[in-house]
Design brief:
Layout: E1 10-17, H1 21-27, E2 37-45, E3 49-56, H2 64-70, E4 75-80, E5 83-89, E6 95-97, H3 108-111, E7 118-123, E8 128-131, E9 137-139
Antiparallel strand pairs: 1-3, 1-4, 2-3, 4-5, 6-7, 7-8, 8-9
Keywords: Metal-binding, Pyrimidine biosynthesis, Zinc
Organism: Clostridium oceanicum
Pfam family, one: PyrI
């Protein structure tokens, strides 16, 4: 039987699409921290069928833009004294910078290193973004 205790103070990242938990775990650098963390993969979920969950027994800075880009259906629970203090529902960000790179070899971002890779959301249902400079399409695998 799998037992994961509740946390006193920290963060629970919930409703992660099954299989994306490890990606978020690594992005947050949780594989090299000295406090308690739990990555639960393929947990049963009424809403998703299966989901991943990350429990972090510490308060950390999280870039919600990146997490929303990785999986817009994530919810983040901030835990204080073993109770949910705040619940944050993520969504696809309208714009993203330096999270993905433009693959168009003729784009200015491919030629000039100092230019920021900027994309804007054009279709939330498809998770489709376009490069600000050349209109190259990037489709998020949400």
């Amino acid at each position: 039987m799998l037992t994961i205790n509740s946390i006193k103070n920290g963060v629970v990242i919930d409703h992660i699409k099954s299989g994306h938990g490890i990606r978020i775990f690594k992005y947050l650098g949780l594989d090299s921290v000295d406090y308690r963390v739990a990555l639960i993969m393929n947990a049963e979920s009424e809403k998703l069928g299966k989901k991943d969950i990350i429990k972090i027994e510490n308060t950390i800075d999280i870039d919600f833009t990146v997490l929303g880009f990785i999986d817009p259906d994530i919810t983040i629970d901030v835990i204080r004294n073993e109770k949910i203090d705040k619940k944050i529902k993520l969504q696809l960000p309208q714009t993203i910078e330096n999270i993905i790179k433009c693959k168009n070899p003729r784009c200015i971002t491919s030629v000039e290193d100092y230019v920021t890779h900027e994309f804007y959301l054009v279709d939330a249902e498809k998770g489709e973004y376009r490069c600000k400079y050349c209109d190259e399409i990037y489709e998020n695998d949400k």
